[in-house]
Amino acid sequence: MRQSHRFEIVSRSPPEEAKEREPLVQLCAFYVGPEEYAVDIMRVEEILPPHRPTPIRGAPLFIEGVIHLRGAIIPVVDLRKRLLGEESPTSGRKTRLLVCWLGRRRVAFCVDRVSEVVRLRRSEIKPAPALGAVGPVPFVVGVCGPPDRLKLLLDLKALLLTEAVRDTGRRVNE
User: Fold this and answer.
1) Which residue ranges make up each domain of the chain?
2) pTM
3) CATH no. of 25-168
4) 158 three-class SS
5) Cα(168)–Cα(83) distance, integer angstroms
6) How many other C-beta atoms can be found within 10 angstroms of the C-beta atom of residue 174?
7) Which of 84, 94, 98 is nearest to 40 (CA)?
């Protein structure tokens, strides 16, 4: 006797189909102190072990100095100082420099450690939280990840411009 197979056709709702067609976003996640942050991986050119920067007098405190990288002079920003206002402990084995593109310029960001590459749908990134009367933090553009491991999505350009505006009292043109 021959057995017949029945297949059930399951239709998906339009929102599910739209979500599947939505492109994936890739983020580079990293730690600064106890917090986990992320940036668009398309901005990250490379991840390097720390280099000893040459200090620049008069630069904001979070600018460690500059490094020479394959013929280019690149500023080094200590994200621990910039985000947490803390001195970085001496470079650990997991400390890394994220060399990122900001427009046509490259900047190296010193982070405590790189954790992972996150792939998710754009709709999975939630808007940045407003902080009462202060409003949203200008360089945090979103939040993503599971509830027990949220990552703050940073706008690196805004992170540097916000500091420049505060230091000089006016907007800096790029």
Assistant:
1) 25-168
2) 0.77
3) 2.40.50.180
4) helix
5) 19
6) 10
7) 98
